[in-house]
Amino acid sequence: MKFVLLPLVVLAVIATSVIWVVALTKSEPETPKLGAVGGEAATSLPAATSGNDVLAPVEEISVGKERYLSPCQLLPRSSVESIFGSLDPDVRLYETYLDSSLPDPRNDASSVVTSCDYYGDWGFSIYVRQMVEPAASGSELIERIGFDTDEVEAAMTAFRAADVGDDPAAAALLAHLEDGYKVFQRPRNATLAQVDGLVVAGFGDRSGGTRDFALIVGSRIIRMSYEADVAPDADVVLSQFARARAIVLTNANDPSLSQAPSLSFGASDTLGETQLLEPCAVLSAETFEKMTGAAPNESVEREPLPLALPDPTSSRAEYGIEGSCSRSFDGFSVADDTALTKSEQRYGRRGSVYVVFDIAAFPDAASAQEEIAYYLEDEDSTAIKTDADAAVLRWTGSSYVLHFRTGPYVVDMRVRGDTYADGEYLDVNLTRTQFVNATNLLVKQIKGQS
Questions:
Q1: Is the distance from CB of 183 to CB of 152 less than 8 angstroms?
Q2: Nearest to 241 by CA among 165, 175, 148, 169
Q3: Number of domains in the chain
Q4: Which DSSP state fits 40?
């Protein structure tokens, strides 16, 4: 069994705008071609329903023998703000989530990590590691927490000196931490039953204000982190995480907890007269497969639209409200005894393809046209004829990026594809025809959802 982790975002800002892409050479390649779109007419896809439930799974998702837990549902934004303080309205959420169950012959991972990260003046992160293959012992789960001994000792030294006499919840958490510390120090013979419910704290070295807590629930590891320039006093930290732990434990054991990713906007939400669209509904799994020829088999990366929308007449709205979605196929994740499809064979078992899709909503088509005009006038851009109102391929010096406008929406899309042959990785690129057909496919999706 190969040990493969799905894409991981843990306790760090995801910079989706800084993604290295292996893309087209300046001359248009003929082979190998990327996906089923090349040379074919784009086909219409079923329209998705805009709104908060658009990414909710149709069927319940499981990981191994346990129910999948969506990190952003375990401790939703409302709870984060009630415990740690208000987030700036412009704060961005970065998220990785699952939209299908594991194990799956198309993903041979032994565990999977999903995450939910808020970053503003201060940051809060929660990630969940779930085991596809059951852990053999409690010591294995403790090792996977990832804390160093000195981090845990630093946390315990600070918390033992805290004044929690007037806070029963904080005092109870400190007692649980003492119990967890004893097991953490001597984990060798720990059983699964002994570590179920264990909680351990660590003071990370990323900054002076970082405070980490890890819980074990069944065979899931749930890790929470608060990060600021200066951390609150130890008694405040204990009080905050006592509340967070109680909510997380309640939600983790709730069989009706939503498995959807975080909520972003309502079905009636608009920017001016422009309907907001969910990026990962436009770049759905089906859309990805039609563009690339490979069915996505990794976790989904998402930067949804902000919850707080600007006045459509404001200068901020003129620059558009943007969200992002990334999907990928990794041939190495496919089980050895599972055949690749004909289209996937162009990447092979050591190749991959990754699509980064950004969509910005503007108050009106005129504002969107001003945005795309910048690329139309760029000397490194080439206009292409598509079903979009305007579309260009822009050469960045090492790759092409697709930019197009349809109505009040502007899309940027980057693709990275590779295959392994003769001891080296080779680029697998979109041709201009394939970019055209991918644009037409996405335009149909956008029009069907707006």
A1: no
A2: 169
A3: 2
A4: S
